[in-house]
Amino acid sequence: MFLPYRHISLKVLAPWLGALAVGAVLVISVVQWMGYTSARELSQVAVDRLKLYHGTLHSALEKHRYLPFVLSRDEDIRELLTAGDGRAGLAVSVNRSLSATNQKAESDVLYVLNRQGTTLAASNWLEDRSFVGHNYAFRPYYKDAIEGRESGFFAVGATTGVPGFFMSHAVPDDTKGARGVIVVKVDLRPLQQQWHDGGEHVIVTDQNGVIFLSSRDEWRYRSLSLIDRDAMQRIRSERQFAGADLAPLALKRLKVFGEEVFEIDGQRFLVQKGPGGKPGWKILYLAPFSYITERQHTVFLIGSVLLFLCLTGGLFIRERRQKLFSAQRAREADRIEAINEMLRVEVEERKRTETRLLKIQSDLVQTGKLAALGQMSAAIAHEINQPMAAIRTFTASARVLLNKGKREQLGESLAEISSLTERMAKITGELKTFARKAPVELQEVDLRVALSKAIQLMQAVCEQDGVVIDFEDTGPETQVKGDVVRLEQVFVNLLRNAADALRLASEKKIKVILAGDEKYALVRIEDSGPGIDISNMDQLFDPFFTTKEVGEGMGLGLSISYGIVQDLGGDIRVENMKDGGACFIVKFPLVAYAERSFACSA
Length: 602
Known about the structure:
InterPro entries: dCache_1, HATPase_C_sf, HATPase_dom, His_kinase_dom, HisK_dim/P_dom, HisK_dim/P_sf, Sensor-like_sf, Sig_transdc_His_kin-like_C. Its main location: membrane. The chain has 602 residues and is of the alpha+beta class. The chain has helices at residues 10-62, 66-71, 75-83, 88-105, 140-146, 189-197, 229-238, 290-404, 407-435, 447-464, 484-501, 557-567, 591-601, and strands at 109-114, 119-122, 151-156, 163-173, 177-186, 202-205, 211-214, 251-256, 259-264, 267-275, 282-288, 443-446, 468-473, 479-482, 509-516, 520-527, 571-576, 582-589. Strands 7-6-11-10-9-8 form a 6-stranded antiparallel β-sheet. The protein has a 5-stranded antiparallel β-sheet with strand order 2-1-5-4-3. Helix 3 (75-83) packs antiparallel against helix 4 (88-105), helix 8 (290-404) crosses helix 10 (447-464) and helix 10 packs parallel to helix 11.
């Protein structure tokens, strides 16, 4: 489904990596948000559970609070405390009464201490571990009660080894302050068992941080922190925990998602604390942190799956689009190949057509020359007839002089005849050169020579039509790359065109200017005619376009001239002059400038 690795460029891979990074950040953010949300929810649950367990603890303790007070008003107990051990029958009666009351109240043990802290009567008087006869003056509940204070004290029983909560009340004596102390022991093990069976994590600590109630047995009689020496000595002296070492838990206190967290033996718990109902006590509810992590893991898993599905879907769509694009490109390639084949055929046809057109153009150039020769034939015949007539005259004169023996004068006649034949040879030579179909071979030529020959060739025609050619040579360098015959053809066509434009003009004048600068040679052919209609400017060099009457021209002269100038690397343009008349401007790059440009580019 996916593209091969070697076909995946960094440019293609970058958006997907960016999307993956954004998706990963989004998933992590949602996981963090779920952590905070779950912590708040768990904290609220912990607060509610803490209130519940605080209530059960308070209920378990307070439901027996009345017993010491009520029993302190019992006359038999008061009398026993007054008589002491002297009345055995009274002690048995009190023991039986305490046993019945203890059973009814569902307390653990009820017993009576005298002023010295010795037990005179107890509800467990018949058991092997009876409290009767034992002295508990070292217990804080005795000390507090004998001094007139109500007391509550948790400790491990010094006689039975059974932990419990001891509540005491003094038996008042109007003369001596207190006759003794009534004590009730409440067994809190069933409460702990309820917590344990409920799968909860609840602990209760005293003022020293010792855990004396816990739903987990391994935490009981451990401390949340190290107990200082004075507190430890006091605990030992009161024999509160029956010699337990009270070692601190392997506890780390953390702050996670803004909540207090305990890490105990590698397990984390979110903690909520509250007063334990007695001075210095604290009750702690520990909610397993796994609730939060499990929800985070669930969200992470769901987010990762969704991210994977999105990326997979995106890659699938991309692959699908790539396939469609590849198919489209294949169709385009086939279409382009077909078009290329058509173009190749068309190019070959165009090349053949171009070859034919070049041949036709060459033939048209020659035809144009012959047409020009035809137009010039009358004037040239006139020019030749004049020297022919003069030759006949001089020949007749030479015979006469020869017969008369005047040889000196005969030489003059022969010289004149020779001059006239040279003139005729020059005219016919120019015609032969102009009419010849010369091969195209560019070489260094003098533009001035080609222009002069063209003017000389057109001079007779123009004189016959009354047109004056004024040649102004400003004397610039005129060496250009070209072909003399073709350059002559261009200038003859332009002069012929200018002469035709002057047929109806009052002033028939053609001005030819040869100028230039360090880069170009410039030929301007100006006429004094009516100029060129602005609407015909764009078509002037088009083949077969002419403004002459039907039969007077084929519209090829300027088109052929334009093609010749372009082939020779020059430029030709036309414009109307301000004072009237048209001006053709032909420009060719000088040989020296072309060579300098080539050297610079090389």
